[in-house]
Specification:
mainly beta; globular; 5-stranded antiparallel β-sheet; Jelly Rolls; 12 strands
């Protein structure tokens, strides 16, 4: 009888922890994503130099390369999340505001139409459309083959929204 009680208590605790993780995760809302193309890359070791300009790209193992268009309605949010790899991002129209979980001052990073930036993928962040028109964002992701594009995260509590 005592063993059954201990097993039931342990199962209840595991259930609370599991549900707590689901409840704490912040889902996206007001975001419509359309995959434009996806493909698989063999390992890459590339250095390109043109005058003073240079780029390097190295991958190990199979890589998934995906291009996505995200339409973010006014008031829409990607929710707190991270990625297992980097993303190259272009704001095609509208404005998107990013916040980082490790920034105690919750300083906004505002990106407008024509801006391009890199999301390293290793940090927990949130993107929000705080404007009045739809924001269109083109994202090119490099991810380990088979990895999820997004890893949900709990609200870190550093921002008041």
């Amino acid at each position: 009888m005592r063993n059954r009680l201990m097993v039931a208590a342990a199962a209840a605790l595991i259930g609370v922890v599991a549900l707590g993780g689901i409840v704490l995760a912040t889902a996206s809302s007001g975001v419509t994503s359309t995959t434009i193309a996806t493909g698989s890359l063999d390992p890459v070791n590339l250095i390109v130099k043109d005058g003073d300009w240079m780029t390097q790209l190295r991958t190990k193992g199979q890589t998934s390369l995906t291009v996505v268009e995200n339409d973010v309605a006014p008031g829409g949010t990607f929710g707190w999340h991270s990625h297992p790899g980097p993303s190259l991002i272009i704001v095609k129209s509208g404005t998107l505001t990013f916040y980082r979980a490790d920034d105690p001052s919750c300083t906004p990073e505002v990106h407008s139409a024509g801006d391009a930036f890199v999301d390293t993928g290793q940090d927990v962040h949130i993107g929000r459309n705080e404007g009045t028109v739809v924001a269109v964002v083109i994202v090119t992701r490099l991810l380990p083959a088979g990895a999820p594009a997004r890893i949900d995260a709990a609200d870190p509590g550093n921002c008041s929204f």
